[in-house]
Design brief:
single chain; elongated
C-alpha cells in the first residue's frame, strides 16, 4: 500500500505542478496581452484562479497521508507515547469522518450544478469543474486520512509524520533549557 500511496503522491504532485505552471503561463500571456498589445484575455483571471485552486486541492492527499496538514498540537508533546498514539488515532479518525462528511456534500453540490448545467460567469466553464475542486480535495483528504489511519494502526511502526522538524527542534531546545 505504501508503494501505491507514494505513486499517487508523485502523480498528484506532477498534476498540481502542471496546473500551477499553466496558471503562471496564462497570467504571463495575459499581462503581455494587456500591457503590450492592449488586448487582455477576458477569461484569464477566472481560469488562473481555478487552476491555482485545483493545484492546491490536489495536494490534500499528500498532506493528510503524511501528516503535513495544519494541526493544533498543544497537548501531545506532554503526553506519554501510548497516549500520544491514542490522541493521534482519535484525531485522524475524526478527520476521516469530517472529510467524508464534506466530500459527500461536495458531491451533492457538484451533482446539482451538473444537473442544472450552470456555467462560470466569465469563462463559461461548467461549474462542476470549479466546484469539483472541493469534491476532489476532500475525497483525496479522506483517502489520505484512511491511509494514515491504517499506518497508525500498526503499533510496531513509529507514528508517520508525527513531528515536523520545527517542533522537534523547539521541544529539544525547551528540554535543554531546563
Amino acid at each position: 500500500m505504501e508503494k501505491l500511496s507514494r505513486g499517487l503522491i508523485t502523480l498528484l504532485n506532477a498534476a498540481a505542478g502542471l496546473l500551477f505552471a499553466a496558471a503562471i503561463a496564462i497570467n504571463f500571456v495575459n499581462v503581455v496581452g494587456r500591457y503590450v498589445f492592449h488586448a487582455p484575455l477576458f477569461w484569464a483571471e477566472e481560469v488562473t484562479t481555478l487552476l491555482v485552486i485545483w493545484s492546491v486541492c490536489l495536494m490534500s492527499y499528500r498532506l493528510t497521508a503524511n501528516g503535513e496538514h495544519l494541526v493544533t498540537d498543544i497537548l501531545r508533546p506532554f503526553l506519554p507515547a501510548s497516549l500520544q498514539r491514542a490522541l493521534l488515532l482519535a484525531v485522524t479518525a475524526f478527520g476521516v469522518a469530517a472529510t467524508g462528511f464534506v466530500a459527500y456534500y461536495a458531491y451533492v453540490v457538484v451533482a446539482l450544478v451538473a444537473r442544472l448545467q450552470q456555467l462560470t460567469t466569465v469563462a463559461e466553464l461548467p461549474k462542476e469543474v470549479a466546484n469539483g475542486s472541493i469534491l476532489a480535495c476532500f475525497a483525496l483528504a479522506l483517502a489520505g486520512s484512511l491511509v494514515r489511519l491504517l499506518q497508525m494502526a500498526d503499533t510496531r511502526r513509529p507514528l508517520p509524520g508525527a513531528e515536523p522538524a520545527e517542533v522537534d527542534d523547539a521541544i529539544l531546545a525547551t528540554e535543554g533549557a531546563k
